[in-house]
Amino acid sequence: MPANLLSPARNGPSPRRFTMNKLTLRRTITSLALAAAAVAGTAGTPAFADAHHAPAQKDVSVDTRGAESVSGRAAVDALADQLEQVATRNGWTPEKLEKTLLHDKTLKVTGPGGLVYADEPLKTGQTSITDNIQTPVYPTTDTFALHSRSSSPYKLYLDFNGNTTTGTRWNSELNGGRAIVSAPFDLDGNPGSFSTREHAIIQAVWLQVREDYAPFHIDVTTQDPGLDGLRRTSSSDGYYGVRMVVSPTNAWYPNAGGVAYVNSFGEVRSGTETTAFVFTNTSGAAKFVGEAASHEAGHTLGLSHDGTSTQTYYGGSGNWAPIMGVSYFKPVTQWSNGSYADANNRENDVAIIASKVYYAADDYTNSTSSTGTLPAGTARYGIINSGDVDLFRFSLTGTRTLRITTWGNTGAVDTNLNMRITLRDANLNVVGAWSPNGDLRATSPALTLAAGSYYVQIDGPGEGVYPAYGSMGFYGVQLDWA
Q1: Average pLDDT of the residues of the chain
Q2: Domain span at residue 104?
Q3: I need a surface site. Which of 10, 40, 117, 289 has the fewest CB within 10 A?
Q4: SS3 label, residue 49
């Protein structure tokens, strides 16, 4: 079985009641427009990508009472009759903004009306998150040249090299106009160079974030795309992204594990790029950094937290947790639509992300007329999206005994996809199906089959506490003679 799945690509209080007036009517129209855009996005078009960029609106001035930002009921009161304007310019409905502010104190409102998530750091007793990752999966010369989809115009740049952030909203709204100097990612006290283990951790983080964003047409990369590859200068500029600064430097924003502006991915700001931060001062473990990076990137794409009626972050159940909850402590982490018990947020994570960066093109179809082939001893690699089915054909000239095996992400990184193998005959009748409980991989037993044509079907069912909705990601499949 191949060691690598894919080589790195080179090339509280009750909400305010709204009366039925012109303001409410405008809000209703906005809500319907955003809902329609999200539905359109599920077809693969980023219909909602510019929803918070146009048209230009008058300036906002929020009374933060001398602080850089305000949260909770104080934020709702400070926004007053500007709540609708701030919500709309940040791509949310007024109802969603008010509800979220009242339930989630990690959401902050800045003086000029920006929305910032300041995610909680690891608590005492949680900072012992560790890993045994010591050896890089790829050559260390590849560490800062990793791409998941190098041809995509949308970039999620994982920046471990240190960065000086200037001219952004972080500087003007939350750091008194001063530059933010972030030190490089560092585990051994030597920030001037990366050790072998640090290379291994960086590669593992990239693999984890790549897995989370596998269904989407976005390039998760460790190679700096440059300013022009990250900033968006106009609504017609189709090449842009976000710099995810991974650094122990948090003095400028203490008491946070990561910070991100809501819906900032694709924001039109001609001179600056979109930046978010993961702070590694409490833990540099690959699991923590990877989950945090995917989570903060989710905020930049418009996602809010997955919680419950009593919890800001849902920690999951069994072996599963939602990425937009707290997912550091579970092996299976997925995007969620709030289908778990007592969910306080039923937004469609997958559709919202796809509305910004498209779905990835289907690599293998479920049509017998255009299916892929699966020769014995040859591995095939693919991606399962929500509701996706991949089909492979093989033929036998005589009776043979064989086994079909799948595997997931590369190295010591958890997969999001719960794999199922279904074997079908030439008439698509089911010969057998395998998706063992408690194991995300699937392997058939030794099968003795007569001559003829057969189809191997790969999909991602739910299991136990999690549904098929978020069972997406990379897989490998191979047929071998037994």
Answers
A1: 89
A2: 51-113
A3: 10
A4: coil
